[in-house]
Amino acid sequence: MAVPDPTLPSFPDDFLWGAATSAYQVEGAVAEDGRGRSVWDTFCATPGKVARGQNGDVACDHYHRYPEDVALLAELGLDAYRFSVAWPRVQPTGTGPANPAGLDFYDRLVDALLAADLTPVATLYHWDTPQPVEDAGGWLARDTAHRFADYAALVAERLADRVPWWITLNEPAVVTMLGYGVGEHAPGRTLLLDALPAAHHQLLAHGLATRALRSAGAARVGVANSHTPVWPASDHPDDVAAAAAYADLHNWIYGDPLLVGAYPDLAWLAGGLPDDAADDLPLIAQPLDFYGVNYYCPTRVRAADPGEPLPFAVAEIAERPRTHVGWPVVPEGLREILVALRARYREALPPVLVTENGCSQDDAPDERGVVDDPDRIDFLRQHLVALRQAMDDGVDVRGYFVWSLLDNFEWAEGYDQRFGLVHVDFDTLVRTPKASYHWLRAALRDEG
Question: Which family is this protein grouped under (predicted)?
């Protein structure tokens, strides 16, 4: 296979290169080792919620095939693997003692990564809340934050001696808005702005878990937030105000409490948070060792029309090419949001890891078994150029993780959206590295 020009901008010698996955999207084995039921098991079993009625019961079977996947990571030349721990695998009901067999899997995975000279980066929560915790109120209930801290302590007790990087939460904004606000993700609630307690309780969970991780000896603790540049659809004051409201809802009600210990001063926000939210801010705003940024594309926003349920609506970015899932390709948006974070938080912004960046393409093996994905190569190359520009602008970025190592179960989209550097045949589970995998391998070798 001819590899396109792998030349990239120069990055620091200690820059951390990695790939990412999440437990429910790749592990499978949902009925093995005592794992309990998660909200995503329930959501997938609800007719009409997931495309083609698909689920993560098998996914990529990473649970059994992790040695093969670790070998793919090592051959790619990466430094690190960002994986998530399934809360219901460790605590089947979300409370009580750890399930030893569940923790044993992560023991095996971490040891395999270390043997391959790969750094484990563990995410404690990538959306798979145990169903009994949801039944007791889920992220709308304050008690869930304390249950999460107990779970964090159990995982850290087993793994903190070998896992140097810890991410508490992945994309609490998405859980709040899609899971509790509009019902497109598990648990499928449609509360609109009444979902705001879920945002606060996740942030509280982060603070409590950070304390538990550090008590267990975790070396570096951070969080992974979804961030998007927000563009008004026009310069009309109503569109500008709508864009600002969306930016507050998606970006700043998460970044501000974590990094400066305050929520944005917004009347609509104050009315939606729990009454005691301000008392929790010192715990939420503990110093972080790094700040994870997941970036995919900007969001264009217009003012809502009469009768629409929220004060804003998403407008199309029609002038840009699109990925298979329909998201616009805007590499300079990565630079824009990183520079915006630096401008907003200044010295309060810790070193940054780009913890997710990637694209879905409609790719499949040809008659020779080759998976050619030139659009993904272009996507990665352009975003890495934008990342280097942000660093030149003064943003302290220490690493970059491609989403994803493997084609996987892509939540409500099922298996139709392929984000992987490695193609997975979901009938046979055969892995085939794509052209983008070979391109990135060559680029990393050039980087040294």
Answer: Belongs to the glycosyl hydrolase 1 family.
Pick the CATH number of 16-447 from 3.10.620.30, 3.40.50.2000, 3.20.20.80, 3.50.50.60: 3.20.20.80
Examine the pLDDT at 64 and tell me if it is beyond 70.
Answer: yes
Q: In the annotation, is 410 catalytic?
A: no
Taking CA 223 as the corner, what is the angle to CA 221 and CA 225, rounded to the nearest 5 degrees?
165
Model confidence pLDDT, tens digit, residues 149-177 = 999 999 999 999 999 999 999 999 999 99
| Total-model pTM | 0.98
pLDDT digits (tens, 9 = 90+) for 385-404: 999 999 999 999 999 999 99
Q: What angle do CA 395, 397, 400 make, to 5 degrees?
A: 140
Q: What angle do CA 7, 405, 10 make, to 5 degrees?
A: 25
Collapse the DSSP code of 107 into the 3-class scheme (helix H, G, I; strand E, B; otherwise coil) and give the result: helix
Structure tokens at 333: 């948006």
Tell me which residue of 289, 401, 405, 288 sits closest to 334, measured CA to CA: 401
* Marked catalytic residue, from 27, 134, 356, 410: 356
Instruction: For residue 375, give the 3-state DSSP assignment.
Output: helix
- What is the spatial distance between Cα 448 and Cα 444, in angstroms, rounded to a whole number? 6
157 is a catalytic site residue = no
Centre a 10 Å sphere on the Cβ of residue 107 and count the other Cβ atoms it contains. 14
Question: 96: number of CA atoms within 13 Å, CB side?
Answer: 12
